[in-house]
Amino acid sequence: MRSVLAITLMLATFAHGEDQEPSPFERGNAAFHRGQFKEAVANYQAQIESGHVSATLHFNLANASFQDGQLGRAIFHYREAQLLVPRDKDIAHNLSIIRNEVHNGTPPKTGVWQRLTGFLTLNEWSLLAVIPLTAWLAWLAAININPAHRKNGAIMRPILGVAAIVLTFITLNVWRMQTGHHWAVVIQETTARFGPVNASPDQFKWFDGAELEIERVHGDWLLAKDATGRQGW
Prior knowledge:
By secondary structure, this protein is α+β, with helices and mostly antiparallel strands. The protein contains 8 helices and 6 strands. The strands form 2 sheets. The chain has a 4-stranded antiparallel sheet. Strands 2-3 form a two-stranded antiparallel ribbon. It is globular. The protein starts with 23 loop residues before the first helix and ends with a strand.
């Protein structure tokens, strides 16, 4: 399975003076090419912690994590990269392969709503919503200023208004989905319990690569749910 993974190391060009130290991103790329994947992961993570984040950085970190056997970390960062460039085929291909490996060839299907809205970024959906919304509001303002224009565009005006409202609704839902608490298990296994106390009995285990949505927080405990609907603390 790993042999068919597209390991494409995305490179970025930085202008450096002769005496300037390479960035963590560049050190990560160098370590990846040497086959030192743990070092590459550490350097890419340092680049993220510096606040300079990009789809390329997440993609490279995901590739290095996968090569180091960290499936959950790889899935998490492929998903982060996909939020920034949702139509990138390499990201989609690699993410699909790792999900197949985690779920033994039967990964949970992506929800219909996510498939319908996931081909655009949040910024792109926002732009689509702003254009008709701005035109509609400007039209309404013009009518209030000069009622004689009320008959102009009597058909198109409500259509434009409905389009603006629908696109705004979609944008708000995409924002809610993309800014929600989506996690992945990045250790070999973790136990889900019935309640948020140590004495609570075990329910089942989630393994490296399980993708979870955090539904509630109680102190240091998280109520998580996976794609099959199982949930536990």
